[in-house]
Design brief:
alpha/beta; Rossmann fold; six-stranded mixed sheet; four-stranded antiparallel sheet; 8 helices
Length: 241
């Protein structure tokens, strides 16, 4: 079987500033894949290119065997950006209904998906409130609910748990693991948080637009001779010593 996502020799610059340089990734179906690195490493640009929001200057990206960008493929991709793209004058429920209407869901399916997504992020009791009154954490939770609304085959989440309390963060990660294991969803998560990185099946460490190293958590620990992931990241050059 072909991989769900294939990134080959991808480079990208904005003006004269290189952001990604000769990036190669292979992500299999049902894999939880972590892109780990500091702010400015190129993680967000890379996931935007996988979604199809940015176009590579060189190289190619295929998602479900389709060259990207491809507008039709957005039916199969749930994307949560770092910055919340919400309609703040609408309620949380109205935001969910609007985004659900963009996908091929019948009325009953929309109702079920909205209820599921709101419950997952603990927003059911706040759906009637205008988003303008939401805290930053509530907006992040609503953005995650929107990413899940159409039951996508692929979830791409850019720093999904920033600003979310530890208890809800654990609940969200438990659901991501369930979606991977039971529904065989392919999930990409960008993060700079070590305890999230170790939950991924496979990790690519990103710095200055390059993949420094990649592997399973156990492979990376063996490669750098330590069980301490902070030490793994320091030795790989992802974190400053």
């Amino acid at each position: 079987m072909n991989p769900t996502i294939k990134v080959e020799q991808v480079s990208k610059s904005f003006g004269k500033k290189p952001v990604l340089n000769d990036v190669n990734l292979t992500i299999e179906k049902g894999q939880l894949y972590g892109l780990i690195g500091p702010s400015g490493a190129g993680k967000t640009t890379l996931v935007k290119m996988i979604v199809g929001m940015e176009k590579a200057d060189a190289g190619s990206i295929h998602v479900l065997d389709v060259p990207m960008p491809n507008l039709a493929l957005l039916q199969e991709i749930g994307y949560m950006a770092q910055s919340d793209a919400l309609y703040v004058e609408l309620t949380g429920e109205e935001n969910l209904k609007f985004f659900a209407s963009l996908y091929k869901l019948n009325k009953e399916e929309r109702k079920k998906r909205i209820a599921y997504a709101a419950d997952l992020v603990n927003l059911t009791g706040d759906l009637k409130k205008r988003v303008a009154a939401y805290s930053g954490g509530m907006k992040r939770r609503l953005s995650l609910a929107i990413a899940l609304i159409q039951d996508p085959k692929i979830l791409i989440l850019d720093e999904p748990t920033v600003g979310i309390d530890p208890e809800l963060k654990l609940s969200i990660w438990n659901e991501l693991l369930r979606l991977k294991n039971e529904d065989e969803k392919t999930i990409i998560v960008t993060t700079h948080v070590m305890d999230e990185a170790v939950k991924c099946d496979y990790i690519a460490m990103v710095r200055d637009g390059r993949i420094l190293t990649s592997g399973t958590p156990n492979e990376l620990k063996a490669l750098y001779g330590t069980d301490d992931f902070d030490e793994v990241f320091r030795k790989a050059g992802v974190k400053q010593s």
